[in-house]
Specification:
Radius of gyration: 15 Å
Number of strands: 5
Strand content: 25-35%
Shape: globular
Largest sheet: 3 strands, antiparallel
CATH topology: GIY-YIG endonuclease
Helix content: 40-55%
Number of helices: 4
Length: 100
């Protein structure tokens, strides 16, 4: 995005959602709140096909500060993890935000 003569870099986030059926969905975005709302159907046709039939979804994990390339690489790495490993990551994240 350009502002005047300067280029402003968008920061990307990697996130995980817990679906109503207990499954986990991993994605990337520049606006986590908007993206969760889209997954929950607040904007028709904007959520992922996977989450469309597994609503409601809840944000359970996120990681900030990526550029687009590193966010996509991290998303790919997370998608390759076993569910138990993802659950451990979520548990660690939840306990760390509980300490704030």
């Amino acid at each position: 995005m350009e502002v005047g003569a300067k280029t402003v870099e968008k920061y990307w986030s990697v996130y995980m959602l817990r679906c109503a059926d207990g499954s986990l969905y991993t994605g990337v975005t520049t606006d986590p709140a908007r993206r969760v709302a889209e997954h929950n159907g607040d904007r028709a046709g904007k959520g992922a096909r996977y989450t469309r039939v597994r609503r409601p979804v809840q944000l359970v994990w996120q990681e900030f500060g990526h550029d687009r390339s590193s966010a996509l690489k991290r998303e790919y790495a997370l998608k390759k993890l076993r569910k138990a490993d993802k659950e451990q990551l979520i548990k660690t994240y939840m306990s760390s935000i509980g300490d704030m």
